[in-house]
Amino acid sequence: MTFLSSTSKSEEILVDMFDEPSLWRFIGDDVMGGVSTGNISFEKNEVGESLGCLKGVVSTANNGGFIQIRKEITKTDRKVLKDASAIIVEARGNDDEYFIHLRTKGMLMPWTYYYVSFIASRDSREFIFPLSKFKASGRFLGRDFPRGGELKSLGIVAYGKDYEAELCVNKVSFIKTPFE
Predict the structure, then answer these.
(1) Rounded distance, CA 58 to CA 132, Å?
(2) How distant is the alpha carbon of residue 133 from its chain centre?
(3) CATH 2.60.120.430 at 11-176, yes or no
(4) How many CB atoms lie under 10 A from the CB of residue 136?
(5) pLDDT tens per residue across span 46-71
(6) DSSP 3-state assignment of 30?
(7) Strands 37-44 and 24-28: what pairing?
(8) How far apart are CA 19 and CA 12, in angstroms?
(9) What is the DSSP string of 89-146?
(10) Burial class, 132, CB count within 10 angstroms (exposed 0-12 / middle 13-18 / buried 19+)
(11) Domain ranges, ordered by start, for the chain
(12) Could you read off the pLDDT of 71-127 as tens digits, one per residue?
């Protein structure tokens, strides 16, 4: 789901082009007894750009149901992100639903996060998500939506149903936009 036109005036303030694979890690529901399987791979697209790819099988068996790739956001990056108002994700997939999960400082439980969903088609697309459109996963997160300067991690997630995940992302950027 795109909430903004890509022609809106905006300023990129932090960009990840998947050219530093060590900053990303794979997490599966096996950490809580689930049986989903998957991995993260780093590939190149047809024009030589780096991709971070999440592939695997999501299973809701045994109270599971997710696989994700996650990047921790450093204290230094949080200072830059204090003015962020939206996230841009450039991705392609297998015509299924995926999620962006944002965790903020002070979140202690792993099932607490802010999220937004999107359908990743087979053709690469740009998705723009204002932070104000993220929803809270629980009732006691303190805010209705996350603030850029409070972020501690970003997850790209296949979640919530039994399916085969295949998602490749070539860019994640935080932007400052004139609408916020």
Answers:
(1) 28
(2) 14
(3) yes
(4) 16
(5) 999 999 999 999 999 998 999 999 99
(6) helix
(7) unpaired
(8) 17
(9) EEEE-SSEEEEEEEEETT--STT--EEEEEEE-SS-EEEEEEGGG-EESSS-SSSSS-
(10) middle
(11) 11-176
(12) 999 999 999 999 999 999 999 999 999 999 999 988 878 888 999 999 999 999 999
In angstroms, the CA 14 to CA 175 distance is: 7
What is the b/e burial string over 111-130, where b = at least 16 CB atoms within 10 angstroms of the residue's CB?
A: ebbbbbebebeeebbebbbb
Residue 25: what residue type? R
What's the rounded Cα separation, in Å, for the pair 80 and 15?
A: 11
CA 154 to CA 115: how far, in whole Å?
10
- Give the alpha-carbon dihedral of 117, 119, 122, 125, to 10 degrees: -70
Residues 90/170, Cβ–Cβ less than 8 Å = yes
CA distance 63 to 60: 6
Nearest to 65 by CA among 167, 162, 166: 162
State whether the Cα torsion 132-135-141-144 is positive or negative. positive
Amino acid making up residue 84: A
